[in-house]
Structures are given as C-alpha cells and as structure tokens.
Amino acid sequence: MGKISQPYYNYDTCARCYNYMPNYVFATRFKYRGYVLINSQNETFIANPANFSQNIVASFMSERYANKWKECCLAAVECCNKMTSSPPWSSNSSFCPRTWDGWLCWPDTQAGVLAKQPCPSHIYWTGNPPSCPRYAEKKCLLNNTWFQKFPGKEWTEYNKCGILKMVKERTYFLIGSFVVSVIALIPAIIIFFVYRQFHLPKYIMHKNLFTSLLLNAVVVIVFNSVFKLQELRVNSETDDSVLNQNGSGCKILLILTKYFRMTTYMWMFCEGFYLHKLIVAAFAKQTNMIVFYVTGWVSPALIVGIYGILRKILKDERCWSQSLEPYEWILTAPNLLSLVFNLLFLCNIIRVLVMKMRAVQTNELNQYRTAVKATMALFPLFGVHLFLVSFTPQSMECEALNIYYYFQHSIDGLQGFLVALIFCYLNREVLDALTKSYIRYKKRQQTPGHTAISTKRSKLSMSTHVSYVQSQ
C-alpha cells in the first residue's frame, strides 16, 4: 500500500477499532467505510481520536464501551508514533514489517518467529483484564509475511487472551458442588417435616436454613447452566447470548440468586442467635418464631428489592450480571454483618461451654476436645467459614488465583451438604428415629397380617380414647 499520512492513519485505525468491536457494545451500530463511520441516515462521521463525535459516542450501550473504543484509538496513535520513531530493522536476517493489527502494535519480527505481546486492556469489553498477564500471538512466516488465516487478511491469535476454558471448568465444578448439596438437602428436609418429634424450635430453624440452602443451590445451578454456560459457549461473532439480550427472565433469576443467598445468611444468623440464647441465657423467655421468619425471609426481600430498583435505574444491561459498585454493598454489608455476629456468638458459646465443663471439674483434655468438636460442628451452621471466601484477592498469580476459585466454590457449594451431614445424617436423634422406623418396617415385612391387625387396633384404641375424653 505504501505510506499514508498520519492524520489518515489515525482516522482509519480509529474507525477500524470501532468496526472490530462486538455487536453487544452498541445501541445503534455505525457502518465502517474506510476512515469514516456512517449511521442509519447515511450521515458520515470522521473517527477522529482527537475529537470524538457525540453521535458516535452515543451509539454505544454505555460510557464504558465508548471508553474502550477511545483507548483503542489512542493505542493506534501511540503505535504510529512508535513505528515512525523506531530505527529500521538492522539485522541481515529477513523479517516481517512492523504493523498495527487493529487492536495491537507489532514491531519488526524475525522470520519464523512466533511473536507474543501482553493482551491490551481495551479488548476486555465486559470485565477487567485478568490479574495475571496473558499474551496475544502473531506468527511471522519464513517468507517475511505475517500469517494469514484467510487470504489477504493477516491473523493475530487473541483466543489466549481470554480465560474461557478455565472459567468453563470452574463453572462446571461450581454446579457439581451445588448438585451434591441438593442431593443431600432434599432427604434431610423431608425427614424433618415427616417426623413429628422434629417439630421443635431448633429443628424448625434447621428446616428453614436447609430450605434456604436448597433453593439457593437450585437457582445457582439453573442460572449457571442456562445463562453462564450459554454465554461461554456462544460464538463471540454472533453476540446472541442471553445475557446480551438482557431479557427480564434472566434478571428475575439473577435477583432470585441474590435473594436466596441472603436468606441463607439471615437464617445462619437466626441459628446463631437462637443457639446463643439457648446456651448463654437458658432461662430467658422463648423468642417468637415470627421474628425469625421476618428476619430470614422478609428482610432479604426488602433489601434485594431496593437493589433491583437501583440496578434497573443505574445499570440495566447484561442481565445485571456485572457488579454495580458501590451499590453491591447493599447486599454484601448485611451478609458480612450476619457473619460477624455469628462469630461473636460462636466465641461466647465456646467460652460458656468451657466454663460449665470446668465447673463440674472434667478432665482438661476432654474440655478442649469438646470445645473443638463444638466449634467444628457450628462452623458450617453459623457460616463462619465463609469469611475465608468473602473477598477475592486480585494480586495473586494465575495458578494460585485459579486454585483459590476452586476453594471458594467448594466452600460455597458444599455448605448445604455439610450442614445436612452434621445436623441430620449424623444427628443421634435423627438416627434413632430412622432406626425405629426401619425396625417397624422390617417387622411389618416379616408378619404379613400384621398391617391389617395393627390398623384395627389403632382404630379401636383411637375410638376408646375419644370416648374416654368425651366422658370426662
């Protein structure tokens, strides 16, 4: 093509930056024609990086996307300045000439070499760049030309800039963790509802917490399976993912994930408050269960409702899947506060238990064992372990950060499994009830006529009981 003037280069590369952006970043997309952009009324606008037209900026869905375009334009200008000021290739070996590929600047590169450069920040449309560096690749062939994937079109490999495969694997792991919790929680909830001896306040608390954990797991599984995995599978060139369509269905489901997550925190707080009151103030007046129901189910609805209104007004895009800082604290603060209170409850409960054991002069080693067992058992019930994954570090190495995410998903997804295991399947009262039911079942199986006889006796007994009561 030969040399072109720098002003024309600036306009053309800026227009190309616009043209290469994905469809979902635009409200109304302009057409690319050389160094100009054309709107639906066939009006032309010069893509001038020094004077961004308000009409062009208004074509983006948000200011964030417009800023990404501006970053690309300025990077192209900087590339031109660097290419014109850098000395020519001095080696006798053959090379591929310096170039701007539409997103990134590439210097003169020796033939047969795979050039690598850190991925530019302006290509991360929907989020921040990864905390660890990732590299784009461009192959310089032995014939002194850049690799072309299609005839006449040089190719740069940007696929490695993303973390698609890694995110997919983590998402499958997260879904699997919650599935394990669902499988564990459903029988536990049925047991607590079926057996009448478990209709006591402490088991009512367990039933509500288990139900909240179950519903949270279900909506997380559905949201990640239907929306997030679909987002990861969709062709980036079509931009037809459900999140980009921003429909009401995915917004409702996302709000439900926020709501049921908060209900689990509130019911963990209720568990902590109830047990603390039971142990520390054994003779205190029983708290009305309505207070717990309001705390566990109603208060999260109010808080999440406020958050949903703000999302609709301030950032109604991509099914609200992106954070809305600083308004995320509307949801985060109550959750963290419940954990803080539960940590205080736990410390005081352990203190009271140790004092009571010392009062009866038990062995000191046994005291510590009992305290440790109580602490380990109450950790998942009170949710104190969630402190470990409340905040995601951003300064870790790639491998370490990926390991942390798996740890976070394990802690989060398997909580339902842990509380069901500790407070249902390993609960002595539950095991006794199940054992008695099993023994009765085996007896009925061994005596074929037993069922009919038992039914008659039960009716006779009930009739006698009613007659006795009426005669009093």
TrEMBL record:
Subcellular location: Cell membrane
UniProt xrefs under SUPFAM superfamilies: Family A G protein-coupled receptor-like, Hormone receptor domain
Keyword Transmembrane in record: yes
Stretches that traverse the bilayer: 172-195, 207-227, 290-309, 329-350, 371-391, 403-426
Alphabetically ordered keywords of this record: Cell membrane, G-protein coupled receptor, Glycoprotein, Membrane, Receptor, Transducer, Transmembrane, Transmembrane helix
InterPro entries: GPCR_2 (IPR050332), GPCR_2-like_7TM (IPR017981), GPCR_2_extracell_dom_sf (IPR036445), GPCR_2_extracellular_dom (IPR001879), GPCR_2_secretin-like (IPR000832), GPCR_2_secretin-like_CS (IPR017983)
Membrane topology: Multi-pass membrane protein
Location of the G-protein coupled receptors family 2 profile domain: 78-165, 170-427
Keyword Lyase: no
A Pfam family matched in the record: 7tm_2
Family (UniProt): Belongs to the G-protein coupled receptor 2 family.
Stated name of the protein: Calcitonin gene-related peptide type 1 receptor-like
Lineage, opening ranks: Eukaryota, Metazoa, Ecdysozoa, Arthropoda, Chelicerata
